[in-house]
């Protein structure tokens, strides 16, 4: 059973979906999350403890808004 969960959030910080992660510790879980191209905020949890909040990469945001 995975102990880490990555919650993808919408613009109002509501959970859009959850990704279960099988990681050995916090450092490993953070490395795994950094491999994802986040378009919105996300939170990494280990059972009931929040490990880290992630914001979308700035370079991704600038590409997303260039067409506007």
Brief digest:
This protein has helices at 26-34, 58-65; strands at residues 4-9, 15-21, 42-46, 49-54. The protein is α+β, with helices and mostly antiparallel strands. A 4-stranded antiparallel β-sheet has the order 2-1-3-4, covered by helices on one side.
Write structural notes for this entry.
With 68 residues, the chain is α+β, with helices and mostly antiparallel strands. Helices cover 25% and strands 35% of the residues. The protein has a four-stranded antiparallel beta sheet with strand order 2-1-3-4, covered by helices on one side. Strand 1 and strand 2 form a beta hairpin. The longest helix is centred in the middle third of the chain and has 9 residues, at 26-34.
Order of helices and strands: EEHEEH
**Largest sheet strand order:** 2-1-3-4
Low-pLDDT parts are: 60-68
- Total beta strand runs: 4
Structural class designation: alpha+beta
Helix content: 25-40%
Q: How far is it from the N-terminal to the C-terminal residue, by CA?
A: 43 Å
How many domains make up the 3D coordinates?
1
Shape: globular
Q: In percent, how much strand structure appears in the residues?
A: 35-45%
- Overall mean pLDDT stands at 86
Rg computed from alpha carbons, rounded to a whole number of angstroms = 13 Å
Give the helix tally: 2
Quaternary structure classification: single chain
What can be said about the biggest beta sheet? 4 strands, antiparallel
